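Priority: medium. Attachment 1 of 2:
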């Protein structure tokens, strides 16, 4: 555990999977972390306790990152508990069951884009308001978790998910240029197939191992392998990197 830097990191969907790994590694690197969750309070509490036991600082906040009110609640909690924001990881994201485009319902698309695209863009705006040197902030780093699906397209699985992450890639490029002179770096990461609960939520719990043969390195990734890339982009080793989108996908 490194000495605490005082810097504050907010991770949406920090309670499980990739987000939880980011929170653990960031806390170990000295960040004070705000762990957001939407349904699984126990997972968020257990993770925060584990971080505190290891000498780190963590708080949890409930909030739906796919709604305006939820995002307001998440950022208010950061203001109240920490009074500053230095890093923001736009990590909350969902898939849905495999379906062809011709069979999509309107409700499916609304949920997918509300959480993966609209919420992520709105939340990044809330982070910019707090970080921008043009608005009285101290600067900061934003990392958007996209997906290799944005490049591959996920035909027959979830083209809508791929499209929602394609929006995030374009957003990453645009926002990085908009705030480059406001002390904020904005980058994206495209995970490949990572072994988390997200596949079960899409109805195929063993999807990661089922598709391993499609990955050049012939195995799914571990959430820690995404978190390591996030920690690099957050770090002082990445001060000239902005507007980049890094594939972390075992070559896929
Ligand atoms: P996961 O295991 O399903 O975990 C999802 C996390 O997001 C949980 O902490 C969950 O909170 C939270 N969450 C879901 N909906 C939310 C909402 N509306 N508001 C706030 N939090 C919400 O997912 P993951 O695999 O770690 O995925 C994390 C990110 O990586 C997502 O953006 C995903 O699209 C992206 N990604 C994943 C993969 C992969 O293969 N795993 C590949 C490419 C990209 P609760 O615990 O409260 O439910």
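Attachment 2 of 2:
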């Amino acid at each position: 555990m490194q000495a605490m830097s005082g810097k504050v990191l907010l991770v949406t969907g920090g309670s499980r999977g990739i987000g939880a790994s980011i929170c653990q590694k960031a806390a170990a690197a000295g960040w004070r972390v705000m762990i957001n969750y939407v349904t699984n309070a126990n997972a968020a509490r257990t993770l925060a306790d584990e971080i505190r036991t290891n000498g780190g600082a963590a708080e949890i906040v409930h909030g739906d990152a796919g709604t305006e009110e939820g995002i307001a609640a998440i950022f208010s909690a950061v203001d109240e508990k920490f009074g500053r924001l230095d890093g923001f990881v736009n990590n909350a994201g969902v898939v849905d069951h495999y379906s062809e485009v011709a069979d999509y319902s309107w409700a499916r698309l609304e949920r997918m884009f509300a959480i993966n695209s609209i919420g992520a863009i709105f939340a990044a705006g809330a982070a910019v308001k707090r970080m921008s040197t043009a608005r009285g902030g101290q600067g900061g780093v934003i990392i958007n978790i996209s997906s290799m699906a944005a490049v591959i397209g996920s035909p027959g699985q979830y083209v809508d998910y791929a499209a929602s992450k394609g929006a995030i890639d374009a957003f990453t490029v645009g926002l990085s240029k908009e705030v480059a002179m406001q002390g904020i770096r904005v980058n994206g990461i495209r995970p490949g197939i990572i072994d988390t609960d997200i596949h079960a939520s899409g109805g195929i719990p063993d999807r990661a191992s089922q598709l391993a043969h499609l990955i050049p390195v012939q195995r799914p990734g571990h959430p820690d392998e995404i978190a390591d890339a996030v920690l690099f982009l957050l770090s002082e080793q990445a001060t000239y990197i902005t507007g980049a989108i890094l594939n972390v996908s075992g070559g896929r």
